[in-house]
Automatic annotation (TrEMBL):
<dbReference type="Pfam" id="PF00400">
    <property type="entry name" value="WD40"/>
</dbReference>
<protein>
    <recommendedName>
        <fullName>WD_REPEATS_REGION domain-containing protein</fullName>
    </recommendedName>
</protein>
<dbReference type="GO" id="GO:0005847">
    <property type="term" value="C:mRNA cleavage and polyadenylation specificity factor complex"/>
</dbReference>
<dbReference type="InterPro" id="IPR015943">
    <property type="entry name" value="WD40/YVTN_repeat-like_dom_sf"/>
</dbReference>
<dbReference type="GO" id="GO:0031124">
    <property type="term" value="P:mRNA 3'-end processing"/>
</dbReference>
<keyword id="KW-0853">WD repeat</keyword>
<feature type="repeat" description="WD">
    <location>
        <begin position="12"/>
        <end position="53"/>
    </location>
</feature>
<dbReference type="InterPro" id="IPR045245">
    <property type="entry name" value="Pfs2-like"/>
</dbReference>
<dbReference type="InterPro" id="IPR036322">
    <property type="entry name" value="WD40_repeat_dom_sf"/>
</dbReference>
<dbReference type="InterPro" id="IPR001680">
    <property type="entry name" value="WD40_rpt"/>
</dbReference>
Length: 115
C-alpha cells in the first residue's frame, strides 16, 4: 500500500501468485485481495493482519452492508461472505459455466453483475 505522495506504507506478501483484484470496504477498515492462486484474503488494515481467507479470485464488497462481500471462482462458483464468519452465507456452485473474473454491485446493492 502506498499514499498518493508515493510513500510506501506496507506491503502484503501472503498470496502465492499475482494479485489481480483489490478492494476496500465502505468504512476503509478492511481490504480484500484476489489472486491467481484462487484465494481471496481479507485484511484488517488497522492491525495490518490477515483475518480471513476465501476461495476465488474475483471479489466485491456490498455497497450498503459493509460486512458483506461476494467472491467468484475459477470453477464458476459464486460465494457470499460476512466478515468474521468463516463459512459462506450462500454458495451458487454453477453460477457460471466457466470462471468468474469480475463482479460489480449496483450502487443500491439489489443487483449483482458478474462476468
Amino acid at each position: 500500500m502506498q499514499r498518493l505522495d508515493n510513500v510506501w506504507l506496507h506491503c502484503l506478501h501472503d498470496h502465492k501468485n499475482s494479485v489481480m483484484a483489490v478492494q476496500w470496504n465502505k468504512n476503509g477498515n478492511w481490504l480484500l485481495t484476489g489472486s491467481r492462486d484462487h484465494v481471496i484474503k481479507l485484511y484488517d488494515v488497522r492491525m495490518m493482519r490477515e483475518v480471513q481467507t476465501f476461495r476465488g479470485q474475483a471479489l466485491a464488497w456490498h455497497p450498503v452492508h459493509e460486512r458483506l462481500s461476494v467472491s467468484g471462482g475459477g470453477d464458476g462458483a459464486l460465494g457470499y461472505w460476512l466478515v468474521n464468519n468463516d463459512r459462506e452465507l450462500a454458495l451458487l456452485e454453477q453460477a457460471h459455466d466457466m470462471a468468474i473474473w469480475t463482479l460489480e454491485w449496483h450502487p443500491l446493492g439489489h443487483i449483482l453483475a458478474t462476468g
